[in-house]
Design brief:
Elements (H helix, E strand, L loop, with lengths): L5 E5 L13 E5 L23 E2 L6 H23 L8 E4 L5 H13 L3 E4 L6 H6 L4 E3 L15 E6 L6 H5 L2 E9 L13 H6 L2 E4 L7 H12 L11 E5 L3 H9 L6 E5 L2 H6 L4 E7 L3 H8 L4 E10 L2 E11 L9
Parallel strand pairs: 4-5, 4-7, 5-6, 7-8, 8-9, 10-11
Antiparallel strand pairs: 1-2, 2-3, 12-14, 13-14
Helix pairs in contact: 1-2, 1-6
Bound molecules: NADP nicotinamide-adenine-dinucleotide phosphate (NAP).
Length: 330
């Protein structure tokens, strides 16, 4: 299985109506990197109905700085605005503010002119979050078993955390306020009364980035290229080398990472780490890619099958020996 839930690139081959060789495209969600080979590869074959044309004013790199996290943040803002969120209203809360979805939500909301309150469990993040546009930084939200309604504090919230603290937000929403519920890093369950919903018109809007209808998906990507695009988008991109991956994974697991990681996977990195061979898989019916790699010293050493829906395909495994002077052929 090739992981990677996001990809962006240029079409090399297609017979799908509406697409042409050379089109720049984005694919996120659906089964990509879940039950279908994902984005961590140079070439990928995907269903055309998953493919979005790269909007004008967005580069392939910017699309991948966003990735699913950015797309989900954009979708949440789109749905909250439909539900009445406006820059004339009260402040907007962003939970899990140092996380992937939280950071980019904060950037986008700030860029649009909203006053954002960032909630984080990290003691060292206040300065960083203020630089990214938070008006105020508060700690993680407490569990709340107090009164059914509290002081109207926020007009809306973006919540990638969920769990039993969610009612803490709901009972503090302004009239007709909404929470965009995205994730569950804080847990799956919560308990609430009906009062915020029937006495203040509160709503919890479920955000699903995976099966968003295509019309809405295209609209959100167009907005990501225009009004939702934060000025500091490139500031949250961090390029790391192959040897920094274990440390970066620890940082993500321990919630010490902010922003999006890009991994530089060049061959010199593999040699530096004492690797003598590298392998890749090429679809057997992709003669261009096969000859590209053959001309660069790769040779076919095996094959394996993969599934695209019910279609079974063959990938040829190609190997490059790094102990020879592979650079001559590059
Ligand atoms: N619905 C969708 O379509 C969709 C799309 C993308 C992601 N998601 C989900 O959204 C969630 C967040 O994704 P992400 O990429 O932002 O993950 P992430 O980068 O790991 O960020 C999650 C953040 O939540 C906070 N957090 C962690 N544990 C917590 C706890 N026990 N209580 C309160 N806050 C906690 C931390 O931020 P602080 O330290 O700053 O508090 C952490 O950085 C995940 O559950 C993911 O599966 C859903």
């Amino acid at each position: 299985m090739v992981p990677g839930i996001d990809l962006a690139g240029t079409i090399e081959e297609t017979n799908a109506p509406g697409f042409e060789v050379g089109d720049k495209v984005i694919v996120t969600s659906y089964d990509l990197g879940v039950s279908h080979y994902g984005g961590f590869s140079e070439y990928a074959r995907v269903k055309s109905e998953w493919v979005i044309e790269l909007p004008e004013d967005l580069t392939l790199e910017e699309a991948m700085i966003y990735g699913t996290a950015g797309y989900t943040a954009g979708l949440a803002i789109e749905q909250l605005e439909k539900s009445g969120m406006s820059i004339e209203g009260k402040e907007v809360l962003v939970r899990g503010a140092t996380g992937g979805v939280g950071t980019i939500s904060l950037l986008m909301l700030n860029n649009l002119g909203y006053d954002v309150i960032a909630s984080t469990g990290r003691d060292d993040a206040e300065e960083k979050l203020k630089k990214l546009g938070a008006k105020e930084v508060i700690g993680r939200l407490p569990e709340d078993n107090s009164k059914p309604l509290e002081k109207r504090t926020w007009q809306a919230a973006i919540d990638p955390v969920g769990g039993e603290n969610l009612p803490y937000i709901v009972k503090r929403l302004d009239n007709n306020g909404s929470v965009a519920l995205i994730g569950m890093t804080g847990g799956n369950n919560f308990e609430t009364t009906v009062f915020p919903f029937i006495l203040r018109g509160a709503s919890i809007i479920g955000i699903d980035s995976v099966f968003t209808p295509i019309k809405l998906r295209k609209r959100v990507w167009r907005r990501l290229a225009k009004d939702l695009k934060p000025q500091q988008l490139h500031d949250i991109k961090h390029v790391i080398s192959f040897d920094e991956i274990p440390k970066a994974i620890d940082q993500v697991i321990n919630h010490n990472n902010t922003g999006q990681l890009f991994i530089n996977l060049d061959i010199d990195q593999a040699i530096k780490f004492g690797k003598s061979k590298i392998w890749l898989g090429v679809w057997e019916h992709n003669p261009k890619a096969l000859s590209f790699y053959k001309n660069r010293g790769f040779r076919v050493t095996g094959s394996h099958q993969f599934y695209t829906g019910s279609v079974v395909d063959n990938d040829l495994i190609m190997e490059l020996d790094l102990t020879t002077n592979y650079k001559q052929s590059l």
